[in-house]
Structures are given as C-alpha cells and as structure tokens.
Amino acid sequence: MLTLDAAYLAPNVTPELVAQQTDRLALAHATLTNGSGAGSDFLGWLDPAAMADDALLEEIESIADDLRARTDVLVSVGIGGSYLGARAVIEALGGDRTVEFAGQNLSAHYHSALLGRLKGKKLAVNAISKSGTTTEPAVAFRIFRELAEPGCIVATTDKHKGALRKVASGAGWRTLPIEDSIGGRYSVLSPVGLLPIAYAGIDIRELQRGAIACARAAAEPDPKKNPVLFYAAARNLLYQQGFLIEALASFEPRLHYVLEWWKQLYGESEGKNHMALYPSSVEFTTDLHSMGQYFQEGRRALIETFVIVDGGEPSLTLPSGDNADELGYLVGEELTAINQAAYQATALAHREGGVPSLTIHLPKLDAYHLGFLLYFFERACGISGYLMGVNPFDQPGVEAYKKNMFGLLAKPGYEALSGELKAKVGAAGDAALVRF
Ligand SMILES: O=P(O)(O)OC[C@H]1O[C@H](O)[C@H](O)[C@@H](O)[C@@H]1O
C-alpha cells in the first residue's frame, strides 16, 4: 500500500474540488477500464497478472537462472521503455548480480568505457526492442552480441515483425515476446523489464504482486477511495490553474531511475497538442543546493510530487565527538530521521513559497511496494491522458528526429530527404558560427 498526503495541495486542490471532478473522473476511469478510448489497442498492461502469466514468469525465471549460472554480467540493450523500467527497478532494489546497460545512447565514450569494464567477464546479452528497428540499441547490439557466451543471447521483441525478430530467428537465439498491446513505457512488468530484473536476482513475482494489489485498489471508481484517480485529478486541476511543470522529487538516490522512467511515461503519454505538464525530476537534498532557490523563488509554474520512503532503511547514526562542527544536537540521531526532517522542511518551505505538493509515502522500498508504485503511475497516466483529451498510448512526435537522422545518415529509402536536410543543416554555413 501507499499513502497520499494531500495537505499541501490546498487551497489549489482540496477533496471538495476533486469531488467536483467526479463525473469527468468517472468518464476517464470508465474509458480506460472499458477500453473505449483512443489507443485502446495498447491496454495489455492494465491487468498485470495477465501481462505475465505463471507460464511466462516461469520461462523468464528459468532463462534468468540459466544465464546467471553461465555468466557474470548481463548487458541489457535497449532504449526508452525498453531500458528505463528494468534500470529503475534494478537501481532501486539492488539485486546480487550486475546488469549493465547499452544502446540507451550513441556515445562512443560510454560504450568504449563499458567494453573496458566488461573485459575478462562472461557476458549474457539481452537485446530488447519492441519494434526491433530502433537505431540506438541495434547499433549497440552489433557491438555486444559478439562478446556473449555461447547460447547466452536473448532477444525480447515483437512475436512476428521487426529486424530483431528476423535476426534472432536466423541465429536461433532464445526469444521472449512483447505483445502488440504493450507499449514500451508500460512494459516494465512484461518480459521487457522482467528478464533483466530477474537476472539481477530480484523477485519478479513480488514486483508483480505489488502491481496486482495496486490494480485492485485502482478499480475503485470513487476518487476519495482511489489514490490513482486522486493523483490524476490533482495534477489535472493544477494544470488547469496554469501550473506548467511537475517535478517528481525524492530524497532517496536509489530512486533516480524511477524518476527517469516516470518522465518518459508522462512525457510521451501526455505531451501532445502543445499541452501538458512538463515532467521533470529533482533529487533532494542534493538538488536543494542547486535547484532549491528556483523552487523557492523562481517562476511560479511548478508543482511537486514527493516520493518518500518511510521505513526499512539501514540504521546509521551520527557518532559523538567534540562540538567544534556544531553537530552536537544530532549525536545519536538516525540519518533517516535527519532526511525525513529535510523532506518535511522542504515541502513546507516550497508550499509557503507557492509550490503546491502531493506526497506519495511508501512504507518501504522493496519489490512489492515498487511494483505497486510503478503500476500506480501507469494507471494514473492513462487516466490523466484521457482527462487531458489525448491518446496516452502513442508517441507520434518521437518520429521527427528519427526521420531527420535517417536522412542525414542517408539510410536507404531516405535518399531524397538526405540532400534537403543536409542543405538545411548546413544552410547557415560559416556565418552562423561564433568562434573563439
Ligand atoms: O522498444 P523499441 O521499439 O526499440 O522502442 C524504444 C523506444 O523508442 C521510441 O522511439 C519510443 O519513443 C519509445 O516509446 C520506445 O520505448
């Protein structure tokens, strides 16, 4: 279970204001659950138990066990939704085996350094791409597949189409399916996320169990009893009031990639028709010493959603010593308690500075509660997109850069565009350069 603390949303958002949205919320809720809205072909994630049934979980676990027995490191190759979910869970929960990530950028430095780190290690490689044609992971996969131990390549991709499917069939590698009805950013609890997570040694059944519990809670149509509806309603009301940026804020560095995953989820789902809250993230207290000033006194366009871990953290107390560092008042205090005080102080200060906030409390950060949280955000994102009047399950805008890149790299089929784009990019010529 998670708990929402909505005290600092007032007066912008109050339970009464949310109650006034009941009809709109009920419509968005029904549109999502009945599959009657835009993008309804992509609701395969809605039922987490069906998305990965027992047979599929067993298959994933058995592949993970086999790879763990034969290798030291898994290189997970993917980008966007084929990357962020697995990384979010693995970085948050740790595990006992190293998973490295490749193909989430095109940096020669990043990939050379990774190759260096992997020297002398026995590698498994998991190529993950729903379309099977995304350039970044395809490029990285060419580099890393050569280094895998025999029989230790797994392709997670569309059942029938795409270049990755073709290559995997030709080479006889093991494969895991990505259903048509599951888009990348909603795929963490499918084979896309689950194989790397299982390789890391994290209990994928617990993760799924948390998501199933959240799905049950989210079936409730009354926004007062359904945290998913409440969150979707609150951010929508704030957007209508003119707020433009939602910052997901944590005080726990191991949530870094959960914040990154959330940004893709909301950015791709809602950033359409020149609308939507811009999803950003901050990691406190680190960022209080860089972004804190802006949060307190910059342009008042920000709302904050805190994700706070309440318990289960290791005990670490401040040791005694002379009081020259003026920390005597904290001797014997738990670091976790100091961090909690920092959260309370921050939420209060920001609220008083004009930043409304909502806090999501997790009793502890384990597989169950993380599964609950991930599903919470997915489900709220579907509702939120429908409240906004967009299709939360497509991402047509992402194609624009790809088309340009293919043109500039003269990919077969893009020859005509190639000349035009090269002319555009070079148009300003020397005149545009400012040299020093
Ligand atoms: O899994 P893939 O087909 O390789 O896609 C990976 C990612 O690339 C894209 O460009 C999309 O914007 C993302 O939604 C997707 O998750």
TrEMBL record:
Q: Which GO terms describe its molecular function?
A: carbohydrate derivative binding; glucose-6-phosphate isomerase activity; monosaccharide binding
- Where is it localised? Cytoplasm
* Pathway(s) it belongs to: Carbohydrate degradation; glycolysis; D-glyceraldehyde 3-phosphate and glycerone phosphate from D-glucose: step 2/4; Carbohydrate biosynthesis; gluconeogenesis
According to UniProt, the reaction catalysed is: alpha-D-glucose 6-phosphate = beta-D-fructose 6-phosphate
Q: List keywords of the entry alphabetically.
A: Cytoplasm, Gluconeogenesis, Glycolysis, Isomerase
What does UniProt give as GO cellular component?
cytosol
Pfam families per the UniProt record, alphabetical: PGI (PF00342)
Q: What are the catalytic residues?
A: 268, 402
E.C. no = 5.3.1.9
Q: Name one GO biological process term.
A: glycolytic process
- Domain of life the protein comes from: Bacteria
Enumerate the InterPro entries for this protein.
G6P_Isomerase, Phosphoglucose_isomerase_CS, SIS_dom_sf, SIS_PGI_1, SIS_PGI_2
Kindly give the CDD domains that the UniProt entry links to this protein: SIS_PGI_1, SIS_PGI_2
Q: What family does the database annotate?
A: Belongs to the GPI family.
Q: What does this protein do?
A: Catalyzes the reversible isomerization of glucose-6-phosphate to fructose-6-phosphate.
Name the HAMAP family for this protein. G6P_isomerase (MF_00473)
List the protein's name: Glucose-6-phosphate isomerase
Task: Specify the species.
Answer: Armatimonas rosea
The lineage, from the top, is:
Bacteria, Bacillati, Armatimonadota, Armatimonadia, Armatimonadales
Q: Which gene encodes it?
A: pgi
